[in-house]
Amino acid sequence: MAKKQLTDEQKRLDTDIWIIALVTLGVFGFNAMMGNQFMSFVTNSNISVVPRLLLNAGLQFGIAGLGITIVCVLRKDKFTQFGLAKKNAVKAIIGTILCFLPSICYIFISGQFKGYQPFSILITDDVIASNILFSILGMILIAIVWGFFEGFNYAVIADKINKRYPTQNQWLDYGAITCAAICLLFHPFCTTFWGIVELITTFIAIYGMLIVKKKTGNAWGCVFAFCFIWNAL
């Protein structure tokens, strides 16, 4: 049986997906190998918060942002092409919040809620405690890297995968499935009862968020989720 010939568009999408995958896995692997050293440096309060934040942000952007940025520059694609628009923004945000409700309930019921702090990372308190200028600039950097790019990264990856592997089933979304699986694999989890509940609710949140993005054509729900839910609870 003859092998099906790929179109130029399919080849381009394959290349885009491979670039994103290799960059993401490369940075993630490097971070995993040097994790203890990086963690020791980033959490060392005796060191200026500036290099600690820049290193942390660089690694985070490398995992969630660098790959899609390289592809967009290479293809001369604008970020707005992936759903950063005013139309349906409110609908996308509301739909995303509903998808995250099971995850939010899990956090409260399991006793893990320690307070609501948007853009909460390891050194957020240190950034806020620094001088006023750097605290503002630092929080903007945190919002961009851990909020905007972490959420938008999923939207772009899902879009690329769905264009390469389209499906007629409106609820079977290969891009959303892949991104939800990536999210679970890239974050620590355990196999206790609450660990399983966390896996299920996280999958629902990411998968649902991307289904909402596809239905509304708007990616601001993804960005909102990582700004005000994922990195806030």
Describe, in plain words, how this protein is organized in 3D.
With 233 residues, this protein is mainly α. It has helices at 8-33, 35-42, 49-63, 66-75, 89-109, 124-129, 132-164, 174-186, 193-216, 220-230. Helices cover 72% and strands 0% of the residues. Helix 3 (49-63) runs parallel beside helix 7, helix 5 packs parallel to helix 10 and helix 8 (174-186) runs antiparallel to helix 9 (193-216). The termini are far apart.
Short description, anyone?
Helices cover 72% and strands 0% of the residues. With 233 residues, the chain is mainly alpha-helical. Helix 1 packs antiparallel against helix 4 and helix 1 packs across helix 7.
Give the SSE order as H and E letters: HHHHHHHHHH
Total DSSP E strands = 0
Shape label: globular
The separation of the N and C termini measures: 53 Å
Radius of gyration: 18 Å
Overall pLDDT: 92
Present the secondary structure layout.
Blueprint: H1 8-33, H2 35-42, H3 49-63, H4 66-75, H5 89-109, H6 124-129, H7 132-164, H8 174-186, H9 193-216, H10 220-230
Helix pairs in contact: 1-4, 1-7, 3-7, 5-9, 5-10, 7-8, 7-10, 8-9, 9-10
Key descriptive features of the protein:
mainly alpha; 233 residues; 10 helices; single chain
